[in-house]
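During the no-cost extension, the postdoctoral fellow (Dr. R.K.) reprocessed legacy sequence entries with the updated structure-token encoder. One reprocessed record is reproduced below for audit purposes.
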Amino acid sequence: MIIIGIHTFFTSLNDLERIIRCPGRFKFEEHNVAAHSWKVSQYAMFFGTLEEMNGAKINWKSLYEKTINHDFAEVFIGDIKTPVKHASPELKEMLAHVEEKMMEKFIREEIPPDYQQIFFERMKEGKDSTIEGRLLEFADKLDQFYEAFAELKRGNTDKEFVYMYQSALAKLIEIPLKNSVQYFRNEILNDAMAEETQIDLTHLTQEILQNK
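Re-encoded structure tokens follow.
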């Protein structure tokens, strides 16, 4: 008789520490998926608080579950570079389908039956039209922004980081979270532009903002 326990799930968390984001590129700072998920939860906590202070009702349990679990499926397929993932809507949809099916298989085989339905709910795609889903999307793009910012600030001339920076910036200011977007534009972005950088980030930033 095979007894399904939670042990495999717990040990698989170590694998997320070994999955490097933006693989195959020179980086001054390496970032792994586990650290990324933790940072996303911190960003979401702040901006969730900001939205709540401005009258929004936040389901904090849902928000934390969405943020800490949003990239677990990368334990199966790794981190796929942003330009590749977004090369076409069809490819993006196919990758999402593969992740979903592999996650379903993992839950059925490795999560104890009493908890499977709960895990199906917690591990599903979290970016949706709810405010929690939008906060997840905002926080996820903010970490992409910061990772690219850190490389460009130190003089990494790899064009992929220019693409990452500008695409994250363009997406951030379009997400329908008025208060979060306003804070990002007026506070965070101004602070970032005030830093001394090796690459002209003000120019790269204005290229995006002037079209919005």
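The radius of gyration is 18 Å. The CA atoms of residues 1 and 154 lie 56 Å apart. The remaining legacy entries will be reprocessed before the final report is submitted.
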